[in-house]
């Protein structure tokens, strides 16, 4: 439960604070998951309802293909 001050704040106080902080209501880390701790996305074969097939993740080589 919030403090009494927080409960007594008005709508315009909240909007003013959001504008001051560029719409952010809480501090967040710049990096969600460090690269060293991140797991590799598993390869998946996808078959669409129209019969097309894809493999995820889609990986491009240096030439952009």
TrEMBL record:
InterPro entries: ATP10
GO biological process: mitochondrial proton-transporting ATP synthase complex assembly
Organism per entry: Gossypium arboreum (Tree cotton)
Protein name as it appears in the record: Cytochrome P450
Family matches, as PANTHER family: MITOCHONDRIAL ATPASE COMPLEX SUBUNIT ATP10
Any Pfam family the entry gives: ATP-synt_10
Top-level taxon of origin: Eukaryota
GO CC entries: mitochondrial inner membrane
